[in-house]
């Protein structure tokens, strides 16, 4: 049996997610039962800021949730050619929101892995409630060493999880898991090599989430090193700024909003989608 938590660092990341009960995640998930631990994209409806004070907060929460679901839709669009016979891996699956969306869209088997046991338990409970537990399964496993069979996956995605791991190690494991021609899709925050090293705002984000944001260049070096050929690269930065502006005005703001807005506006940080095929 593989050891899931291999370092003091991984144990601290696991502890963070095991104890995480942030309203910004839970209240948004309660809107329709899809729990995301990622950010949103797209313009918000400014009318949510004008509704009467007693319902304004809930209106903002519903709108933020819509933008987070829109983000997952954009990621999953890159797998639109898949069919029910395919198998997908959600690497760093959180409470499972994107996995349930993927299963609904493609009808296929989805396996999610997380180093947080409480997230895995929560997401498997959701799978049972939704009646999809035979096809959507969550596992307490490390995405660097998943234990799944070589060549068993048609697609893999990481939705805001790569800043916790070494990219060369991660993409090596993904190259092993994907069948020839299989696709990997990543949404992540990364810092801008053009403006230099980690800015103060990027360092604040790292510290807040106990993560290690990589430079943009490292994604493409590590992909190329592991036989992945990019097919799409989309800078989602302009599309995510409205989400952060709305979040900063919500009751569920967590205190990290200014750092994200500063980093995006000064150009030291991008919100990047990359899709690459395994050759
Ligand atoms: C920001 S959350 C994203 C969750 C999910 N992808 C989503 O979009 O809702 C980061 C996730 O990465 C997971 N994670 C971090 N390091 C990991 C590792 N080495 N192996 C597996 N999961 C990991 C955490 O447990 C957590 O579920």
Structure description:
- The structure is a single chain.
- This protein is of the alpha/beta class and 279 residues long.
- Helices cover 43% and strands 20% of the residues.
- It is built from ten helices and seven strands.
- Strands 3-2-1-4-5-7-6 form a seven-stranded mixed sheet, with helices on both faces.
- Helix 4 links the parallel strand 1 and strand 2.
- It is globular and about 55 Å long.
- The mean pLDDT is 96.
- The structure holds S-adenosylmethionine (SAM).
- S-adenosylmethionine binds next to helix 1, helix 4 and strand 2.
Bound ions, cofactors and other small molecules, one mention each: S-adenosylmethionine
Q: Element order, helices and strands?
A: HHHEHEHEEHEHHEHHE
Helical fraction equals: 40-55%
Strand content: 15-25%
Strands of the largest sheet, in order across it?
3-2-1-4-5-7-6
Overall, the morphology is globular
| Radius of gyration (Å) | 18 Å
Low-pLDDT residue spans? none
- Estimate the mean pLDDT confidence: 96
Ends distance: 29 Å
């Amino acid at each position: 049996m593989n050891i899931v938590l291999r370092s003091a660092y991984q144990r601290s990341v696991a502890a963070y997610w095991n104890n995480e009960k942030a309203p910004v995640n839970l209240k948004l998930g309660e809107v329709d039962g899809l729990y995301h631990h990622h950010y949103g994209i797209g313009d918000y409806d400014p009318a949510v800021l004008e509704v009467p004070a007693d319902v304004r907060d809930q209106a903002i929460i519903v709108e933020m949730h819509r933008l987070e679901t829109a983000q997952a839709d954009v990621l999953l669009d890159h797998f639109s050619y898949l069919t029910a016979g395919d198998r997908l891996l959600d690497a760093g699956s959180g409470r499972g929101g994107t996995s349930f969306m993927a299963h609904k869209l493609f009808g296929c088997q989805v396996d999610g892995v997380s180093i947080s046991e409480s997230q895995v338990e929560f997401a498997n409970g959701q799978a049972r409630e939704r009646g999809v537990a035979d096809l959507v399964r969550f596992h307490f496993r490390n995405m660097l060493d998943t234990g799944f069979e070589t060549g068993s996956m048609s697609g893999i995605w990481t939705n805001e999880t790569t800043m916790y791991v070494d990219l060369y190690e991660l993409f090596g494991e993904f190259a092993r898991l994907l069948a020839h021609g299989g696709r990997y899709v990543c949404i992540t925050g990364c810092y801008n090599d053009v403006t230099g090293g980690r800015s103060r705002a990027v360092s604040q984000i790292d510290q807040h989430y106990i993560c290690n944001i990589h430079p943009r260049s490292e994604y493409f070096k590590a992909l190329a090193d592991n036989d992945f050929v990019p097919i799409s690269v989309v800078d989602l930065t302009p599309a995510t700024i409205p989400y952060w502006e709305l979040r900063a005005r919500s009751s569920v703001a967590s205190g990290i909003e200014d750092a994200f807005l500063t980093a995006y506006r000064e150009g030291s940080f991008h919100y990047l989608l990359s899709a690459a095929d395994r050759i």
